[in-house]
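[Solved] Which block belongs to which protein?

Original post:
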Amino acid sequence: MSDRNKLRRQNGIIAGVCGGLGEFYGIKPFWFRVLFLILALPLGHPAIEIYLILWLVIPRRRSR
């Protein structure tokens, strides 16, 4: 499996989670940021916990 098909955190605004999800699914990271923002507004704390869990679970992209 090539690196392109693996879910990896990218260099991003906070932890690279949205950038990694965007690259993996072929969607701009902006839309994942909007999704997390929409989830964080009514849910608050649980949305932040989901982001932190993803930050810990998704490995970093290796520097080349």
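(Second protein starts here: sequence line, then its structure tokens.)
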Amino acid sequence: MKLNENKTLGNMTVGNPAKLIIKFSIPLLIGNIFQQLYNMVDSIVVGNYVGKIALAAVGTSFPIVFMLISFFMGLGIGATILIAQFYGANDYENVRKTSQTIYTSFIFLSVPLTIIGICLSGTILRIVNVPADTFELANIYMKIIFAGMIGTMGYNINAGILQGLGDSKSSLIFLAISCVINIILDLVFVLVFHMGVAGVAFATIIAQIISWLLGIAYIFKKYEFLRFPILKFGFDKELFKKIFKLGLPTGIQQTIFSFGILNLQSLINSYGSDFIAGFNAANKIDTFAFMPVQSFATAVTTYVGQNIGANRYDRVHKGVISTIIMSLALSGIMILIVLPLGPTLLKLFNQEPAVIDAGMAYLSRVLPFFVILAVMFVLNSTMRGAGEAIIPMISTTISLWLARIPCAYYIANNYGRDNLFYCFAIGWIVGLIISTSYYMTGRWKNKSVVK
């Protein structure tokens, strides 16, 4: 069913590209901040009120959780791109069918993922060399997080649907509510009930389930063309093939990337709990600092998807150039702000000098190269929005496995553990060369899945 009515809500096919991307990015940025606050608050609370071992346990668990859900998150990104292209083409019926198909898929996939995560958490922690003093707490944290995985996946489905429609504000509201609940429950479970790492894990899954349920209610109320009975399990085989085509490379990329990060985490774990805690605290700060660029990259995916769906190829390049310029400027600003404040920010997580020194070893060797990662991120997001997911997968995989990880081990063995973090910049340079080379060919413009 095609509707020819004029769309205003979330329409990114008319208007100034830079203004549209900024407008779309601001709620995403605020949402990313709230999302990061989940992990930061968990880390701050356990780091200050439970201890550095608990901080290391929470930090070392996150990449493992991300690895196990990353493939399914890739399929979610595929659905977002497909929804954006259908929405740009005014094809509301297929927007609804795509949303129902991806919801059905995730509901059925969340059950085996939960079981696998709970059963394999201890085995994976041993594989990545988690120290004995950290193992038990990390295992407890992971099992609880996986038990509530349906809330995490459900929230991401809602956010993906809304972003495909050009609506980045709505999911922000639910995420903000969820974040406040998470903070309150963190403090109550840890300070009042003395539940330690288990307390912050329970706080996280309860808050995310609430956010997911609120999102469902809102989407069905505001978007009439998206209403469908959740338990009816509608599934369109052809649309799922398209979602799979768009999402599979991204899912594989994120899974391979997560496995690579675990490999790097294993190297870091070999240097003890102080180094683990410092790295994980610095990584939270680093993630926070890169959020403005990440938000721009997410926005440009939707922008490109809608404009290609509407056959507005003339607008795509203008939006991409504007996004790169804004991303470079923001990267420079974040470097100048965060790097001098590094020691102060690290003390929020833990006061011990050894932890702070390890954190600064990371920040001082990674932050100055943000500008490289910024351009790579924007170009990869542009190609995904157009329907070209293979090249971003190749770029990210090669930059990680053939550059970053080998360099990390080589540098650590020959120049010391602190200098291993230069491997990030080396990997980003390799990835940027690959992404830029393909982007300049223009072949990604012919990858649209909506005809």
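Accepted answer:
You had them paired correctly. Confirming on the second one: Residues 159 and 171 are 6 Å apart (CA to CA).
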